[in-house]
Design a protein that fits this description.
Length: about 190
């Protein structure tokens, strides 16, 4: 993780404290810069906890600690009908594809910011600025269709200590066995 607009002393103190807390919570973190993420190699996080740095509107960075939980997962024909009922303008999936819909809870546990704007930022020219969900597929790419939803997870403000919930959705190949991942705040986690 790169620390921009912060002194190395601040970063060292913060990460020493964060590492102690993550050790208590049995969270593994990735010490490599976001540019070096290889999703196959570094999706090793065993918890839904995330400690990283959020970019502020002023261009500074602020430490944040979040937790994420998948509340519900739906896929198949029923999900296609649910998406249509939400008003999504989507095509019927081809024979070997299906829609998958995740309902997710995000809690802003702690950090320097009083509120955190949880908004998607992908693609981002600066790797540390990326914030998005990824659903790998065994044999092909998935297509993120979250923008079609009536209750997307994005563009919600979370007060410190508070939670939000919303949905993300993808078109995937039928039978995909991969888990949903979140990349953001300089970290990548797997949501099981």
């Amino acid at each position: 993780v790169y620390f921009w607009n912060r002194s190395s002393v601040d970063a060292d103190v913060y990460w020493e404290q964060a590492n102690q807390q993550m050790a208590k919570e049995n969270v593994l973190w990735n010490p490599y810069p976001a540019e070096h993420y290889d999703l196959d190699t570094y999706l090793e996080t065993k918890s839904t906890g995330l400690s990283g740095f959020a970019l502020t509107p002023e261009g500074d960075s602020a430490p944040v600690r979040l937790s994420m939980e998948v509340l519900d997962t739906q896929k198949g024909e029923a999900t296609y009908q649910e998406l249509l009922n939400q008003g999504a303008t989507i095509d019927e999936p081809a024979n070997d594809f299906e829609y998958i819909l995740f309902t997710i809870k995000v809690t802003y546990e702690d950090g320097e910011l009083e509120t955190l704007l949880f908004e998607e930022n992908y693609p981002a020219s600066l790797a540390q600025a990326r914030v998005h969900f990824v659903l790998p597929d065994d044999d092909s790419n998935t297509t993120d269709i979250t923008s079609c939803l009536s209750n997307p997870i994005w563009n919600q403000t979370i007060p410190k200590g508070g939670s939000i919930s919303g949905q993300v959705a993808f078109l995937q190949q039928t039978g995909n066995t991969q888990t949903l991942h979140f990349e953001g705040y300089g970290q990548v986690i797997s949501l099981k």
